[in-house]
Amino acid sequence: MRRYDAIHEIRSVLDEVLDEPGPLLVLCNGMIGREVFATGDRPGNFYMLGSMGLALSIGLGLALSRPNQEVVVFDGDGNLLMGMGTLATVGALQPRNLRHIVLDNQAHGSTGNQRTVAETVDLAAIARAAGYPWTTRLEGPTSEQLRSATRELLLAPAPAALLIRVEKGNIPDIARVTPTPREIAVRFRKVATGECSRAGGDPARNTPEFPGESRQGPSRFT
């Protein structure tokens, strides 16, 4: 199964199972973020542009600060290997609203498909040893197997992790994420804090973005 197809199946289950306004999605940098964007952008998506290995850290902080909101992290094997220490922190703190999806193609897809060590490192076993109450690994699943496992993930005791072995390769000419880092932060903040009630809605962008900042203020992300 291609990574893009896996993302499409997972997102369809998220929409089917979770009530509005839907979960807060944290997407790691690279092709995974771009492919999630291609399957449907929404203000409740936080795209970690450029910085590798941080999606789970951001998701953990959100889960702890917003305990009544479901947080779903989309990660890659390269990203997870780079930020592996966060697995232990998640295991120690046990956020009950954090779901962790790892799309494992055993390669750095954004930079030329260089091999990662995920081929010989059991990331699911590491997550279990770190303290995740529920982990499952799928090896080249069918669509129905993936959909079933995603439903289990959403019902399992959290923190929970679903690792999916997917094929190497990227969608040709896939678009980049078009909102700027500033726009991503502003709209996501409105969803996370309840200023916008629907994670899939379109919160207004004509209000001051950060406390004490005017509409014409300089970007803090560029």
- Form type: globular
Q: Beta-sheet strand percentage?
A: 15-25%
The CATH topology name reads Rossmann fold
Number of strands: 8
- In helices, the fraction of residues equals 25-40%
Give helix and strand order, one letter per element, not per position.
HEHEHEHHEEEHEHEH
Structural commentary:
This protein has one domain (about 5-165): Thiamin diphosphate (ThDP)-binding fold, Pyr/PP domains (Rossmann fold, 3-Layer(aba) Sandwich), CATH 3.40.50.970. About 35% of the residues lie in helices and about 15% in strands. The protein has eight helices and eight strands; from the N terminus they run αβαβαβααβββαβαβα. The protein has helices at about 5-15, 30-40, 55-65, 75-80, 85-95, 125-130, 145-155, 180-190; strands at about 25, 45, 70-75, 100-105, 105-110, 115, 135-140, 160-165. It has a six-stranded parallel sheet, sandwiched between helices. It has a two-stranded antiparallel ribbon with strand order 5-6. The model is unreliable at about 205-220 (pLDDT under 50).
